[in-house]
Amino acid sequence: xxxxxxxxxxxxxxxxxxxxxxxxxxxxxxxxxxxxxxxxxxxxxxxxxxxxxxxxxxxxxxxxxxxxxxxxxxxxxxxxxxxxxxxxxxxxxxxxxxxxxxxxxxxxxxxxxxxxxxxxxxxxxxxxxxxxxxxxxxxxxxxxxxxxxxxxxxxxxxxxxxxxxxxxxxxxxxxxxxxxxxxxxxxxxxxxxxxxxxxxxxxxxxxxxxxxxxxxxxxxxxxxxxxxxxxxxxxxxxxxxxxxxxxxxxxxxxxxxxxxxxxxxxxxxxxxxxxxxxxxxxxxxxxxxxxxxxxxxxxxxxxxxxxxxxxxxxxxxxxxxxxxxxxxxxxxxxxxxxxxxxxxxxxxx
Length: 349
Hints:
By secondary structure, this protein is of the alpha/beta class. It has helices at about 1-20, 50-60, 60-65, 75-85, 95-105, 150-160, 180-185, 200-205, 220-225, 240-245, 245-265, 270-275, 285-295, 305-320, 340-345; strands at about 30, 35-40, 70-75, 90-95, 110-115, 120-125, 145, 170-175, 195, 210-215, 235-240. InterPro entries: SsuA/THI5.
């Protein structure tokens, strides 16, 4: 009996250790019939800021580059990065700032294609609070919606409030997700203001339920709000995956660069026509408008601008509890690479 008890204790210890350290080996990529099998988690498949992910699939660019890709949706960027770190997925389409935040936790993620130089986010204020909240300086005592704590919307919300002289003790950050849960939170008093993206922005503005308070869907709006560029939606992977499988990373990078170039050459109507019909559930015209309002965020080439990466570090260094104490030791060159995008642009693979 005592022997069995010892065995049970030993097994429990092993299982606990595996839970902590037993992540899948990211250096191994599944193959089928000689083609890489890649799973990419996207921080909201229906969000316009991450439109290049589904559009790449719909245009056939993954297949054209001899790679099989499965796209999975996850509304929280923080949850997506966890799936990447545990090896459940091989890549994430999410905000670049996660690579900086994770380096502060001694984890190495690297952006290999930068879709946008700006967040593509807007801070909305509810109809009920529009008279009371005219700028971030009015955030004190208010309930501010973010996708989740530790998400990019959380970082950006802290930055907007911080530049108005406030800390997180001066307002409440409320997890409301995105899409319908965000809308419900705002329409039923769960939040006074909140950060979200198109098509939710277009839907709430058209209905009159909210107004745009801060618009970071354009370069001008982003520079005004954050003091510079803030590269956001991107394709990032674990550093050891990038190092071990450069040929597979190149296939992915080339596919996404082809899509970014296609976006620049086509109208919002043509882009909307390529997307799944259910993405226009609130109406085709509204969906086209949401693309028109946000499509300028995409850079067309997939390159990271060093100026933008530095501004991300500047902001996280002030407002991220993880990055702030390690700001001076962060190596930005380890958080992104333009190598694969440059080869794609040059037509070399």
